[in-house]
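Listing S7. Sequence submitted for prediction.
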Amino acid sequence: DTAVFHGFVNCGASGAITGIGNVLPKEVLHLAGLSQAAAKGDAEARRLAQELDAALAVLSSFDEGPDLVLYFKHMMVLKGNPEYRLHFNETDALTDSQRGFAEAQLKLFDTWYAQWSRQPAMARYAA
């Protein structure tokens, strides 16, 4: 999750598996496309990929902890998939603080991406 840009550009990756890609598939595919172009030496794509990678950093970092499934399921619910409310263990839940943080970060990213993705340069790199 936290190494999509690095993997494509510095390690020659040809694909990526991400948790946040389940929540934000279009945006992560956009990052992969920009990173692939950056790996070929496209300076503008490199700049844009780094910007998008940085903006996704907090959401992607949810994959690093023991509550990763709870975070991603909660964000899936926020994105309009109520079936992800169900947990195998009924007591599994994020704390109020964790939920609030995830909600704020997802809203921040969505607001940023809506504006950022309207840049004129994006026509060349549409996901």
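Caption to Listing S7: primary sequence and predicted structure tokens for the chain studied. The chain has one domain: 4-125. The mean pLDDT is 93.
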